[in-house]
C-alpha cells in the first residue's frame, strides 16, 4: 500500500501543502516544533479520521480558520483511490473517491497505517483505557465488521447507562431493561470475540519477534483480561457461548448495576496485559523490557496486517529511532527495509543507521515550509 500524494489545507501550521512521496522511505527532517509530526498526524487522520495525539479535532484546524482538509491518492495492489477528511467546528466528513461515507466502517481500513511513537510505551505502562484504545484502533482498521459492532455496542451501552442513571431509586421497566441488556450482550459478544482473536494473533507474531530482539532470552505472552467472570478464555471461541455468558452475567449483576447506575461488566471495562518470562512487564519489567515489548507489538502488527489484508500497511515512525539502541534500531529498520512505505520524523540523521535506509526522500522542514533535497 502506497500513498502517492497528499494535500493539506489549513491543517495545523500548514496553510496549503502538496507533497509527492517516495514509495519507500520518506524522511521529515527539522528542528523541534517545525511541523514534522503534523505531517504524520495528517496521514494518520487520512487513514483513521482521528488523530493519534488528540481527541479534539478542532485543535488540528489552523488557528483562525474554520475548516481543515486533508486529501490523498492511494495505490494498493488492486486499485487506486482517493481519500479525503474534512474537519470543521461542526464535525467531520470522510470521502472515498469523492463520495461522502455515512459510516466510518465503510471508510476506515482503505488506508492501513501503523504508527510508532514514543507514547507506545503507554500500551504497556499506561492505563487500561490506553490499551482498549490501542485494540480498537488497530483491530478497527483490520476489520470493518469489528468497527461496526464496536459502534453499535457503544451506542446501546450509552442507552443502557442513561436508563440506569435515569431510573436510579425508581422502579425500572423490566421488559425494556431486558431488551437493552440483550442488545448490549449481542454487540458486546461480537466485540469480545474479535478482540480475543486479535490478541491471540498479536501474541503469536510478537512472541517470535520479541524472542529475536532479546537474543532468544525472553518469552513474551499477551493476555486479554475480561471484566466478565470467565474461567478460561479458551472456552470463549464461539459467539453463542460468549453471548449467553455475557447476558447471564448482566442479569446476575442487575441489582448492583441498578444500585450504581452504570453497566459494570463488558468490553468497555476490559484490559490486556503482558508477561515476559512469566512475570508481568508493567509491574516487574525494566524500562528497556517495556520498550522492547511495545516495539515487538508494533512490529507484530505489520505482519498481522500483511497476513490479513494481503499487503503491507504504511508505517509512520514519529521520532522513535533516537530512542532505540543500535540493536533495536536494526531490528526495526531491517524488518521494514524495501517492503513497507515509511514516513519518518527526526531532528537529525546522525545516529540513524543509513545503510538500512535505502535512497530516502528527504523533506527539510522549517516553520511549516518544506524543501525536498
Ligand atoms: N492548530 C494549529 N494551527 C497552527 N499551528 C499549529 C497548530 N497546532 C500546532 N501548531 C504549530 O505546529 C508546530 C508543532 O509542529 P509539530 O508538532 O509537527 O512539531 P515537530 O516538528 O514534530 O517537533 P518535535 O520534533 O518537537 O516533535 C508548532 O509550531 C505549533 O505552534
From TrEMBL:
UniProt keyword Chaperone present: no
Keywords: ATP-binding, Cytoplasm, DNA damage, DNA repair, DNA replication, DNA-binding, Nucleotide-binding, SOS response
Annotated GO CC locations: cytoplasm
Domain of life of the native organism: Bacteria
Sample GO molecular function, one term: ATP binding
Domain RecF/RecN/SMC N-terminal residues, every copy: 3-347
Location of the protein in the cell: Cytoplasm
Primary location: cytoplasm
PROSITE patterns: RECF_1 (PS00617), RECF_2 (PS00618)
One Gene Ontology biological process: SOS response
A Pfam family hit: SMC_N
SUPFAM superfamilies from the UniProt entry: P-loop containing nucleoside triphosphate hydrolases (SSF52540)
Record: residues binding ATP: 30-37
Family: Belongs to the RecF family.
PANTHER family: DNA REPLICATION AND REPAIR PROTEIN RECF
UniProt function note: The RecF protein is involved in DNA metabolism; it is required for DNA replication and normal SOS inducibility. RecF binds preferentially to single-stranded, linear DNA. It also seems to bind ATP.
Record-given protein name: DNA replication and repair protein RecF
Organism: Atopococcus tabaci
